[in-house]
Amino acid sequence: MPRRAGLFARHVRELAAERLGRDRDRDRDRDHSPPPSRSRSPRRRTSGQISAASTSAAVDLKKPVDDRIQAEVQGFEGSGSGWEDDRDRRPRSFPYDVKEACWRKAAVIPGRDPSRWRRDAIGNAVFKKLVGCQGCLCYDYDHIIPYSKGGKSTLDNCQVMQATANRAKGSRTEVSESELLERSAYCRLSRRDMDTVELVSYGNISKVRSEGEFMGCRIS
Fold first, then answer.
1. How far is C-alpha 186 from the geometric centre of its chain's CA atoms?
2. What is the pTM assigned to this prediction?
3. Spatial CA neighbour of 99 closest among 140, 42, 60, 63
4. Each residue of 46-59: pLDDT tens digit?
5. Stretch 195-209: mean pLDDT, rounded?
6. Are 217 and 198 in contact (CB under 8 A)?
7. Cα–Cα distance for residue pair 159/108, rounded to 1 Å
């Protein structure tokens, strides 16, 4: 038994020495061998290559856009309907100062404040605050020569007209005064009614008398 145990121990030592020798040889070969090269996939591109490719594509796409824009600009400059012509087009609505002057040239109603009451071109009473609405005291700033017929938004082509009558006139140029009166909204107001309208709208009543202008809140 002691002999067999000694042989077994020697065999174990030999195996351990042999394994240790193999490990040393492997480590020595690893230290002297060059580092392995990493192969890159031919389909994979770096971020710099991608950026350069995208920039190149952007430049290529930009050229026809610039050419198209330049062609459009040249088309506007060569035609008679460019941006500068749009500035010179006739305004569709009357400017504020023209509207105020148009109101002042309308006929006054005796005894009433002319800044609040006027008569339109065919004699209907209209109230200053009721512009652009539908009703017997409502009015529009009307183009005497309709805008669609070449009329300009100037004072000499402006008149105050009851809204209902103006809708009936439309874009026609040959309309008789009798037809417009017939198509107007009938409205007959007493002085007391007019006082009430003023009091509700302005908070007071303004009248013109021989001794001057009177303003108060008394309905008469």
1. 40
2. 0.58
3. 140
4. 555 545 444 444 44
5. 92
6. no
7. 14
Whole-angstrom Cα distance, residue 191 to residue 180? 25
Query: By the 8 A CB rule, do 187 and 164 touch?
Result: no
Residue partners of 133: CB distance under 8 A and separation at least 6: 163
Residue-level pLDDT at 47: 53
pLDDT at 8: 64
C-alpha 16/C-alpha 19 separation (Å) is: 5
For 183, other C-beta atoms within 10 Å of its C-beta total: 16
- Domain chopping of the chain, boundaries: 96-187
Strand partners, 142: 159
Q: Locate the DSSP E strands across 13-108.
A: none
Q: Any residues with CB less than 8 A from the CB of 91 and at least 6 apart, and which?
A: 153
Tokens of residue 101, six digits: 């002057």
Measured between alpha carbons, how far is 111 from 218 in angstroms, rounded to an integer? Answer: 15
Give the per-residue pLDDT at 57.
Answer: 45
Contact 207, 214 (CB under 8 A): yes
Q: What is the pLDDT of residue 20?
A: 72
CA atoms within 13 A on the CB side of 189: 20
Residue 187 gets the label, from left (phi > 0), alpha (psi -120 to 50) or beta, of beta
Q: Name the residue type at position 168.
A: A
> Which of 4-8, 66-70, 82-86 is predicted least confidently?
82-86
Residues 185, 135: contact at Cβ < 8 Å?
yes
* Mean pLDDT of all residues in 151-156: 95
